[in-house]
């Protein structure tokens, strides 16, 4: 038995619809600019040669239905609703027609973003870590097993205080789920527990303390969040 000198960090995990066990979360891959309308609203163009990614750490995971204290270091916290793909089998250098075989399930997520810090990083051509990877930056719903959901053209939407801000269909994605999995698997050994956040549609915007966020994808468990005061 290994004697660790410090307490081990907790295993981040998600509930599963219809199951008692929980899904352990490993790496969180996030796809940038995967909806053309969102890229345009941010003043960007879609790179149609290849998708691009950034990562969130497991410490960013927050359960749907909880309260997120307004994060430190920002005055412009934004919401981004996304479809989540959960990986349940190893995958490396996959062809696109084999990508579906590693999918375990699906869910909804809020990719919370410190937009002012992201803008500063972009201006200096620096990584986005401070803006994207912080405690509570990945708010995740319960997962639905893949056999119970088939992603087609379902509506993806988010409301803040009952007012719809984001509203699209997941078929608007520039890069499909199979294309994303195949592409990622040529850079990483995908492993069970990995999550892929597949990008956000147009309509992102700021939230403040007291706001209530509610949204998701038709056929999946919703994702909900309340923004609390800063600590």
From TrEMBL:
- Tell me which domain of life the UniProt entry assigns to the organism this sequence originates from: Bacteria
Q: Does the keyword Ion transport apply?
A: no
**Ranges in a coiled coil:** none
Q: What InterPro entries does the database record attribute to this sequence?
A: Fumarylacetoacetase-like_C, Fumarylacetoacetase_C_sf
What is this protein identified as? Fumarylacetoacetate hydrolase family protein
Which residues does the UniProt record annotate as the domain Fumarylacetoacetase-like C-terminal? 28-226
Keyword annotations from UniProtKB, A to Z? Hydrolase, Metal-binding
Q: Which GO terms describe its molecular function?
A: hydrolase activity
Tagged with keyword Hydrolase:
yes
Pfam families per the UniProt record, alphabetical: FAA_hydrolase (PF01557)
């Amino acid at each position: 038995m290994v004697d660790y000198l410090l307490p081990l960090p907790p295993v981040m995990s998600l509930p599963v619809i219809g199951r008692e066990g929980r899904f352990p979360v490993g790496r969180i891959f996030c796809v940038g600019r995967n909806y053309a309308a969102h890229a345009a609203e941010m003043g960007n163009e879609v790179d149609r040669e290849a998708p691009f990614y950034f990562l969130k750490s497991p410490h960013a995971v927050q359960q749907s239905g909880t309260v997120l204290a307004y994060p430190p270091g920002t005055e412009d916290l934004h919401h981004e609703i996304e479809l989540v793909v959960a990986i349940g089998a190893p995958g490396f250098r996959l062809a696109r027609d084999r990508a579906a075989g590693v999918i375990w399930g699906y869910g909804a997520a809020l990719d919370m973003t410190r937009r002012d810090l992201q803008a500063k990083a972009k201006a200096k051509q620096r990584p986005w870590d401070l803006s994207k990877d912080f405690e509570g930056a990945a708010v995740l719903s319960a997962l639905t097993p893949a056999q119970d959901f088939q992603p087609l053209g379902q509506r993806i939407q988010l409301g803040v205080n009952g007012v719809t801000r984001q509203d699209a269909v997941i078929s608007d994605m520039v890069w499909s789920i199979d294309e994303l999995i195949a592409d990622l698997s040529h850079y990483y050994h995908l492993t069970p527990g990995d999550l892929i956040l597949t990008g956000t549609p147009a309509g992102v915007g700021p939230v403040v303390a007291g706001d209530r966020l509610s949204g998701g994808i038709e056929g999946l468990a919703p994702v909900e969040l309340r923004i609390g005061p800063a600590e």
